[in-house]
């Protein structure tokens, strides 16, 4: 079974600074997808960024970028120019294709990192 | 564009009472649908997923059940709630592409 580990339960950063959230995963699959989701106090789960395992280039979305190290099974999230609105719980998630009588994909989540951006 | 709605947003139910949480997806057809639970403010656990009408797969044995009576409707139910069923429930969907999108969530408190 796949596991996702986020070793930092909580982190804090000053506004406008850069912060990196760590994530490692364990899988025997070669083709899979990795995601970072953000959960603000409203509790809605919002997609931040995604990475396909077959792509060597690291994904980037505005101030958010990842460092994907496939051999090391590491997928960290870097937030540049942190803003107060970035305060949220951040979840790393892994998805593989599950072919069990029908096409389906399932997400496995880490336990999350609570990020606080301080003014 | 596609949207997903869950209701009710908040629910307080006594132990032993029934439960029905509904989820509807708009703007797409034949999506994969999911129910996740987030207990104690951490971690998400996949409860059920569905690849089509009437097709339900359960991930964790529990006091809950799911149904998909229509293509874009996914319902989470219980006949008799337990205290341990309290938590935040999230419905999610996936169509083309390899990304799962989540609804607003429903808070369930069993008292």
Plain-language structure description:
The complex is a heterodimer of chains A (119) and B (111). The model of chain A has no long low-confidence stretch (mean pLDDT 92). In chain A, the strands form three sheets. In chain A, strands 2, 5, 6, 10, 11 and 12 form a six-stranded mixed β-sheet that branches. In chain A, 0% of the residues lie in helices and 53% in strands. Chain A has 119 residues and is mostly beta strands. Chain A contains no helices and twelve strands. Chain A has strands at residues 3-5, 10-14, 19-21, 24-26, 33-39, 46-52, 60-61, 64-69, 74-79, 88-97, 105-109, 113-118. Chain B has 111 residues and is mainly β. In chain B, 0% of the residues lie in helices and 60% in strands. Chain B has no helices and eleven strands. In chain B, the strands form two sheets. In chain B, strands 2, 4, 5, 6, 9, 10 and 11 form a seven-stranded mixed β-sheet that branches. In chain B, strands 1-3-8-7 form a four-stranded antiparallel β-sheet, with no helix packed on it. In chain B, a hairpin with a 2-residue loop joins strand 5 and strand 6. Chain B is globular and about 40 Å long. The chains are: A mainly beta (119), B mainly beta (111). Chain A binds chain B through residues 33, 35, 37, 42-47, 50, 52, 89, 91, 95, 100, 102-112, and chain B through 32, 34, 38, 41-44, 46, 49, 51-52, 55, 57, 59, 88, 90, 92, 94, 98-105, 107.
